[in-house]
Design goal:
iron-sulfur; N-terminal domain of TfIIb; binds iron/sulfur cluster; 394 residues; iron; alpha+beta; 14 strands; Ubiquitin-like (UB roll); binds FE2/S2 (inorganic) cluster; 4Fe-4S; Mopterin_OxRdtase_4Fe-4S_dom; disordered N terminus; Alpha-Beta Plaits; 3 domains
């Protein structure tokens, strides 16, 4: 049986229409015959042949003036024309419900496409629909029959006969611990709405680890040497609290909110930007996101595309426009409207989503499913909006 009531982004093959049985999806639209018109049966080619244009009078465009291209009948005789790869499917159970998904689908994609709303609402921190799985946070774990440990659903591919369980005590306990330990060390108060909801639903209580230890001084965490940890005092909980880094006019790095999900480094690297301006430095609790040699952003390789901001789940990376408004108590997400338009700076055709509060653009993003941007932008699309409001630069 195939359930199709799931929500969330559809995985490969969409969320419905999987065959009830068989090894390949065999969707009829993946095969057309003869002249390329879906549904043509034998004989259809003759009807088409009679329509073939032979008129060569001036003003008429003829695709095959020499008349040497194969006609519809010949093309039909050559057999079916495949338009797109045929993908095998695999069968598995999600909390006891049998589903089939295309081979290569991750468990998370299967939950999004074929699961119930509860199954599709699997918490994720380091996953994004427009990025390759990073597999760092373990918020998305599920049980798989026969597996010694819980497995990350965002990265593990479905296999034939797999039995997946999502709502067990073991799964819920593990997800709660992940969220709780992260919240005990990083400031999650500006995390995305989804993250805030998951923390509430899983009963996260970071305060049970005690009061926070004093914050680190400016640059202190950046100077720590790998492997040289000071012993905790046992009375307070260690945190990554430290001063905000403001060293340019476009975006702010507030690493007190960083959970080391690695999304920013992947967006800056091989997932989108290929600039590699930031990477993980340090070890253990001292691990941190850093520019090369901890230089300021203007001194680094950063090109200010803002793609790291676009994927950060906790608000550690935000535009200066957002940061300043929040600091001034002038941030109104409840009044925000989002208008989609096309970037006017060049001819690529990137979709822009203009986030507007109280008549002013406060952020610009792009839809993750847009075929041109895949959710990523350049400096002009992301930050080049001040002229729209005639604001002075700087
Ligand atoms: S703004 Fe772009 S180039 Fe700069 S660190 Fe972020 S992703 Fe890398
Ligand atoms: S700055 Fe944001 S995106 Fe980068 S690792 Fe930290 S939480 Fe993740
Ligand atoms: S969302 Fe799966 S490991 Fe982070």
């Amino acid at each position: 049986m195939t359930t199709t009531s799931g929500k969330g982004p559809a995985g490969p093959g969409g969320g419905s229409g999987a065959p009830a049985a068989g090894d390949v999806d065999g969707t009829p639209e993946s095969v057309v015959t003869g002249n390329g018109t879906p549904g043509d049966g034998p004989g259809a080619g003759e009807g088409v042949a009679s329509l073939r244009r032979t008129d060569t009078s001036p003003g008429v465009t003829v695709a095959d003036p020499a008349g040497t291209a194969p006609g519809p009948a010949e093309r039909l005789a050559a057999g079916p024309v495949m338009l797109g790869a045929i993908r095998r499917t695999v069968g598995l159970t999600l909390d006891g419900t049998q589903v089939r998904v295309p081979e290569g689908t991750t468990i998370l994609e299967a939950l999004h496409a074929e699961g119930t709303p509860e199954q599709a609402d699997t918490p994720t921190l380091c996953w994004a629909p427009n990025m390759d799985p990073i597999n760092a946070c373990r918020a998305c774990v599920v049980e798989v029959e026969g597996s010694r440990t819980l497995v990350p659903s965002c990265a593990r591919r479905c296999e034939d006969g797999m039995e997946v369980r999502t709502g067990t005590e073991k799964v819920r306990h593990s997800r709660r611990m992940v969220l709780e330990l992260l919240a005990s060390s990083a400031d999650m108060s500006r995390a995305s709405a989804d993250v805030a909801r998951w923390m509430s639903e899983y009963g996260v209580d970071a305060d049970r680890y005690g009061p926070p230890a004093p914050p680190a001084g400016e640059g202190e965490r950046d100077r720590r040497h790998a492997g040289h940890h000071r012993a905790p005092d046992g009375r307070t909980r260690e945190t990554v609290a430290q001063p905000v880094k403001i060293d340019n006019e476009l975006y702010v790095r507030d690493y007190s909110r960083c959970i080391m999900c690695y999304k920013c480094t992947h967006a800056c690297g091989t997932d989108a930007q290929f600039t590699f301006a930031i990477a993980a430095a340090g070890r253990g609790f001292d691990a941190r996101i850093a520019t090369e040699h901890d230089v300021t952003l203007p001194e680094s390789a950063c090109v200010y595309c803002g793609n790291c901001i676009g994927v950060c789940p906790t608000g550690a990376l935000v535009s200066v426009a957002e940061y300043d408004r929040r600091e001034a108590g002038d941030w109104h997400p409840e009044d925000e409207t989002v208008t989609t338009t096309i970037c006017s700076f060049c001819g690529v055709g990137c979709n822009l989503e203009l986030h507007v509060q109280q008549g002013e653009i406060v952020n610009v993003t792009s839809p993750s499913d847009h075929s041109v941007t895949h959710g990523h932008l350049c400096i002009k699309g992301r930050f080049g909006f001040r002229h729209v409001q005639n604001l002075p630069e700087g």
